[in-house]
Amino acid sequence: MVTKSIRHVVKCSKNQSSRQLIKLNVAEAKIAKKASKTEHHLWNKRDSAASGQKALNLVRIVCGLPNEKEAVYGALDKWTAWESEFPVIAVAKALNILKQRKQWTRVIQVAKWMFGKGQGMTMGTFDTLIHAFDMEERVDEAESFWNMILHTHQRSISKRLFSRIIAMYAHHHMPQNIIEVFADMEELGVRPDEDTVRKVARAFKKVGEKEKQELVLRKYLTPYKYIHFKGERVRVTRYAPTE
């Protein structure tokens, strides 16, 4: 009996020790997990700060150059000469800064240089470049660029990019081009936003196709809209043909 008691005590103490070891291991794993998350977060912050500084440096460089392709591309090549990887984030931030400053020529130059390196080919950058072409009234270049996008990224073109090219054509009073882009949208199953629908409807009106104008408005706009009347939100019927 005494031997059995001793064995029972030893067994219990072993089980308790095992449970304590498991608890310690779990606690250590949690601490290690937290530490790794913290380190990752700190690394991201440092990288973000570095890319922001690089972006500002790039903007300073290109804005101080003459408006010559060779000079700009040469300076940009020199800017990346010591980089182990292409600084895509820094260039994207620089493009955003140039866009905010309305430096459209520099936006075009930097974006084209980046594409020439096989980098940064995203819908966001495409949108920025088409917008810059629009502001610089370089419609032919925008059109060639758009056709390239349509050919190579057909099934992945965003609604925003369709809206951008339609807005450019509307800005330059090109209704037939708007209708052609809208036809591509319908073929690819991309539903236009309300502002784009109105641009398309106006384009049909300008080319004398009033029936299609009304059809587009009825198809893509809801039959009602909300307005504020005497401090309340009220639903009213939409008069598509006259809007």
- Widest sheet: strand order? 1-2
Low-confidence segments: 35-46
The name of the CATH architecture of the largest domain is: Alpha Horseshoe
Report the CATH C-level class of the largest domain. Mainly Alpha
Q: Number of helix segments?
A: 10
Query: Which assembly state applies to the chains in this document?
Result: single chain
Which band does the percent of strand residues land in? under 5%
Shape: elongated
Q: How many individual domains?
A: 2
What is the string of SSEs from the N terminus onward? HHHHHHHHHHEE
Question: Could you characterize the architecture of this molecule?
Answer:
The chain is mainly alpha-helical. The protein folds into two domains: 82 residues, no CATH class; 121 residues, Serine Threonine Protein Phosphatase 5, Tetratricopeptide repeat (Alpha Horseshoe). It is built from ten helices and two strands. Strands 1-2 form a two-stranded antiparallel sheet. Strand 1 and strand 2 form a beta hairpin. About 5% of the residues have low confidence.
List keywords for this structure.
elongated, mainly alpha, 10 helices, 243 residues, Serine Threonine Protein Phosphatase 5, Tetratricopeptide repeat, two-stranded antiparallel sheet
Summarize the structure.
The chain has 243 residues and is mostly helical. Helix content is 73%, strand content 5%. It contains 10 helices and 2 strands; from the N terminus they run ααααααααααββ.
